[in-house]
Amino acid sequence: MKNKNMIRKILHFFSENASIIGLAFMLLVGTLINSSFLTVDNISNILRQMSTVSIVTLGMTVVIISGSIDLSVGSLFCLTAFISSYLSQYNTILAVAGTLAAGMAIGAFNGFLVTKMRIHPWIATLAMMLGLRGLVLILTKEDTYKPGVANTAFESIARGSIGTFLNYPLIIMLVLAVLFALMMKYTRIGRDFYVCGGNREAARMMGINVERAINISFILSGFTCAVSGIILAARLGSVSPLAGDGNEMYAIASCVVGGIYLSGGRGKVHGAFIGSMIIGLLTNIFNMQSWLSTFWESVITGSLVLIVVLLQKVSAMRAEHNRKIVETI
User: Fold this and answer.
1) Phi-psi region of 146 (alpha: psi -120 to 50; beta: other; left: phi over 0)
2) Second label for 169, Cα 20 to 30 Å away, from 137, 200, 224, 274?
3) How far is CA 295 from CA 47, 249, 270, 286, in A?
4) What sign for the dihedral angle of Cα 22, 315, 271, 66?
5) Which of residues 28 and 313 earns the better pLDDT score?
6) Are 140 and 241 in contact (CB under 8 A)?
7) 322-326 mean pLDDT
């Protein structure tokens, strides 16, 4: 009996945290493909490169769990990178504070469009995605922007490190991941996100301010875009008007692979974070091999997302079937 219970608990754990199995599989594949894959240098490089998308994924996770979507994150990421790069030539504190304020303000505007104007989040954030990308192209004059005066203090945000491998972007990413996980699990607003995503009418009947929760989720998404934009600008010292193009798709893919349900109300922050690591490892694996075209990366990523969504659909249908059986008893 004890052995059966133990096996049942183990199976339940992996069913709820399937992303861990995916991560282990990616590590195994990478190691088999290239012996230098599982080295401290390479893993540190992967984490540094994936830090920006992973941070954006944290904000996207909150938005999806609350029952919405944010397609503007890629364009907002690029715009905030430009803002921070532009302001960095004047003052580091101004560059950081001004960029965070801009990102959160645009996130709040997305929330306003969705909650007050009653525009579907797909349409509202798609319009913002196109508008913000166009704004960046105008501001940069369709060319890579480089500030007139270099700011070493600002650049140290992304280029500094503690020791050899613990770089600042990695530290920022891990700290934010822990804070978001704690918020979603232990705070009232975190529970509100889950209830709103699960059933908004039930959330209203419970006295939850649904509009407030959705607005905060978009503000947090804008905040994570701004943090990522700062890291990108500090690391490169310049900003391309095409930076972050497609980041919204990678963020959504990371969430789905990590077990976040696009229907809302289900999933965990650490799962989405692991999902972003899986996507990052997949990119690195393709860069380290030579027999497949890198275009296959997109094919595999898309197929992986489709498979996970189908499995989620089957799981939801099974749960609904079991619920109906219980009601008839």
Assistant:
1) beta
2) 137
3) 22, 15, 28, 9
4) positive
5) 28
6) yes
7) 66
